[in-house]
Amino acid sequence: GDHRDLHLCDRRQRQMCIRDRYQRRVRAEVAKHNTREDGWVVVNGDVIHVTPFLDDHPGGAKAIELYLGKDSSEEFNMLHNNQVVNKYAKDLIVGRLAKANL
After folding, report:
1. How many angstroms separate the CA atoms of 72 and 2, rounded?
2. What's the angle, vertex CA 88, arms to CA 82 and CA 89, rounded to 5?
């Protein structure tokens, strides 16, 4: 992995610090994908390429378009059960926001 700037992390908190840096990089990458033609959203840690699904979304494309390039977990969880992504969008997951224990 990328070990630059590790000296800036407190030794006792290095694992958490590395994870935070990783998450900031992923969030920055997700934020670039904020158009209908190339849209990503984060749902409960999964980064999902939603463009292919927009026109099939039962709640309408606009409901997803509001969150392109962002984390939509809070709003998503108010309207969907936790199996929706696995059932309808599993093949659209491009990565995870939270890296497992380093």
Report:
1. 28
2. 90
